[in-house]
Amino acid sequence: MVKDKRIRIITGHYGSGKTEFAANYTLNLAKSGKKTAIVDLDIVNPYFRSRQIEPLFEEKGIRVISSSIKGLAGDLPALSPEIYTVMEDKSYEAVIDMGGDKAGATALGRYHDRLDKDECDMFFVLNANRPLTADKQSAIRYLRSIEQGSRQKVTALVNNTHLCGDTEIGDIMKGQELCLQVSQELGLPIKYTVVHKKLIGDLPDDICGEIFPIDIFMKKPWEME
């Protein structure tokens, strides 16, 4: 993580687990002692937004930047001017949780001229169990649409193939095969393989990328009080 660029943009198809990955990544950054901020730029999809666990972030000293309209389920595309802070204040290590389709990605596209490309990584979180990214061509098509909307280039892939609580090692390896196909086609590295901590001991030795253990923080709508 410390070798990643200062601003980490996290994107991927809805249901890929990008927000869970972004949340865990942000918490790990703060745990390492970094001055950390997370930008919730997912202003289209009302579910699984980083702001859902804002009290936990704040407890860990993480600055949370989200919509200027407060509320978990609001769908107003209101962007806070605080977003410029992480772009200009280089003392921050930042994570940007971006929208999961081309329309959501355009929220980042408006800042393309303010983002220093040398300071940005964009990680495409891939879940091979999602219908619109289940094969190589579909995944590449989706990735390209995100790049077009955001006006940024993906720099690495993240294998986060899962079935929520029913995830098995076979799912992770299925995702690795898809990531390898996309990696070879586009020349992109596989940066991380995301694994729930309870499955770490069962992983084979031929995992691509860094193993990224996670806890589950994001709640489904019907699990929230």
Distance between the termini: 34 Å
Order of helices and strands: EHEHEHEHEHEHEE
Shape: globular
Low-confidence stretches: 72-76
CATH class placement of the domain at 7-34 and 96-223: Alpha Beta
Helical fraction equals 25-40%
Main sheet makeup: 8 strands, parallel
Radius of gyration from the alpha-carbon trace, in angstroms: 16 Å
- CATH fold-level topology of the domain at 7-34 and 96-223: Rossmann fold
Describe the structure using short key phrases:
225 residues, alpha/beta, Rossmann fold, 8-stranded parallel sheet, 8 strands, 30% helix, ATP-binding, nucleotide-binding, ATP-binding protein, ATP binding, P-loop_NTPase
Would you write up a description of this structure?
30% of the residues lie in helices and 20% in strands. By secondary structure, the chain is of the alpha/beta class. The chain has a domain at 7-34 and 96-223: Rossmann fold, CATH 3.40.50. Helix 2 links the parallel strand 2 and strand 3 (63-65). Helix 4 runs parallel beside helix 5 (136-150) and helix 5 crosses helix 6. It is globular, with a radius of gyration of 16 Å. The N and C termini lie far apart (34 Å).
